[in-house]
Design brief:
Blueprint (H helix, E strand, L loop, with lengths): L19 H7 L5 E2 L2 H9 L4 E6 L8 H15 L3 E6 L3 H4 L13 H16 L11 E4 L1 H4 L4 H7 L6 H5 L2 H7 L7 H4 L1 H16 L1 E7 L3 H15 L4 E5 L12 E2 L2 E2 L9 H9 L3 H11 L4 H13 L5 H15 L1 H14 L10 H9 L3 E4 L5 H7 L6 H9 L3 E3 L2 E2 L15 E6 L3 E7 L1
Parallel strand pairs: 2-3, 2-5, 3-4, 5-6, 9-13
Antiparallel strand pairs: 1-6, 7-8, 10-11, 10-12, 12-13
Helix pairs in contact: 11-12, 13-16, 13-17, 14-15, 14-16, 16-17, 19-20
């Protein structure tokens, strides 16, 4: 198998599996669930309506949310009807974090973020055909409800003893911070969402992260008590790296799905750096590659890890899914050119600038000596070291070797930038005024 081109896997259910449930299990997407046999039969039968909720606690979704978005899509591809819920009301509250109370955002901020998240969720689902997706906002049924009606119609079904046992609540009760009644009530609001969707759309399944299991089951229990019906929940695993570090972070920053908050180039490099020990599991969760294709990549990782074929395919698939093939092509071209395998002068200006922002960089004036630029970017520690590096033939500017100690920077690449290289792999960006 050669390094992949820009052809991506079609979004489809793998025909190697008899049931989408079996595929979800194989991909490692079922960490906890209600009755597994009942779920398997449910997903193999007539189309059902199911949902997943996304709270606007930031201006963008992130890679953890991408697990849910792709899970929604996989089940839709099997013929079922997805509801993407954006939490206009739950976003005003925020689910309890294990350590401290959330800072409540303003209504205007939450409303803005609801719009942003809605647009993101819509990108991953199909709104055509008999199983077309629908986007809902829980503020629509929460806002008209008075406090008295909320307590009488919903609160009466919840038992405080059960609520206290939820993991997030228990963790906070045992902390110095404690927990406010506001956050304590979050699980009631999420349970009410499931009940409302069950009543409006006959929704019988909710998916979410396993860390949300207490909130997921608050909905199944509420429906059982209020309607006498049995519904289901699936908790996907929290993705962690094999070395125990937190997944979805890059140098302390979340990998957001919004290109303005995390550039396609940065996202591509994040996936490209996936460890050999993690890459096959990432292919299962984050791509639509079939089992047989993923098994081929597993063999390549075992026998030719230095080619990093699996990582390249993973980066291609995920960035194309999130940002589109055209943006991914620009990112790959920039990545290859920066490391000496392409022409820097042909790159898209915006992609090149965002790529350089991820490197050590500096802003310099036109005509700045290269020796000074080397120091400004941190590629060397002193002017004397910069001159020595040039004399030894180890410095290039915009792909051309610098032989003259008096050479200057002019920002000749697209977008008025330049690329400094010391040695084979140490790069820096120059933004030229």
């Amino acid at each position: 198998m050669s390094t992949p081109d820009l052809t991506t896997a079609p979004q489809a259910i793998d025909p190697a599996f008899e049931n989408v449930w079996d595929e979800l299990v194989w991909r490692g997407l079922v960490h906890v669930s209600t009755d597994q046999e009942a779920l398997r039969a449910l997903l193999a039968g007539d189309p059902i309506t199911y949902y997943c909720g996304f709270d606007p606690t930031a201006a963008s979704l992130h890679l953890g949310n991408l697990v849910q978005l792709l899970t929604l899509r996989r089940i839709q591809l099997a013929g079922h009807k997805p509801l993407g819920l954006v939490g206009g009301s739950t976003g005003l509250i925020g689910d309890p974090r294990p350590t401290a109370e959330r800072t409540l955002n303003t209504r205007e901020t939450v409303e803005d973020w609801v719009g942003r998240l809605r647009a993101q969720v819509e990108r991953y689902l199909s709104f055509e055909g008999e199983n077309a997706a629908r986007i809902v906002n829980n503020l629509d049924w929460t806002a008209p409800l008075s406090a008295i009606d909320f307590l009488r119609e919903i609160g009466k079904y919840f038992r405080v003893g059960t609520m206290l046992k939820k993991d997030a609540v228990a963790a906070r009760l045992n902390s110095d911070e404690g927990i406010s009644y506001t956050e304590f009530s979050y699980q009631i609001l999420q349970g009410m969402d499931f009940l409302e969707l069950y009543r409006q759309y006959d929704c019988v399944l909710q998916t979410g992260g396993s860390d949300q299991w207490g909130n997921l089951t608050s909905g199944t229990e509420l429906i059982r008590r209020a309607e006498g019906a049995s519904v289901h929940a699936i908790g996907t695993p929290l993705i962690t790296n094999s070395d125990g570090t937190k997944f979805g972070k890059s140098e302390g920053n979340a990998i957001w799905l919004d290109a303005d908050m995390c550039s396609p180039y940065r996202m591509y490099q994040f996936w490209l750096s996936t460890a050999d020990s993690d890459v096959i599991e990432r292919l299962k969760v984050f791509t639509f590659l079939t089992r047989s294709e993923i098994e081929e990549y597993a063999e390549l990782v075992a026998v030719e890890p230095f080619r990093r074929a699996a990582q390249k395919r993973l980066a291609l698939e995920v960035v194309a899914t999130v940002h589109g093939v055209e943006a991914t092509a620009a990112v790959i071209a920039a990545s290859e050119a920066l490391f000496g395998q392409g022409d820097l002068t042909t790159l898209d200006a915006e992609t090149l600038r965002t790529a350089l922002e991820e490197l050590p960089n500096a802003t310099v004036g036109v005509g700045t000596p290269v020796v000074e630029a080397l120091v400004s970017t941190g590629l060397v520690s002193s002017l004397s070291e910069a001159r020595r590096a040039i004399t030894q033939g180890g410095v290039t500017l915009d792909g051309e070797r610098v032989d003259d100690e008096t050479a200057t920077v002019h920002g000749t690449l697209p977008g008025g930038v330049s690329v400094l290289r010391r040695g084979k792999k140490t790069l820096a960006g120059l933004f030229v005024d």
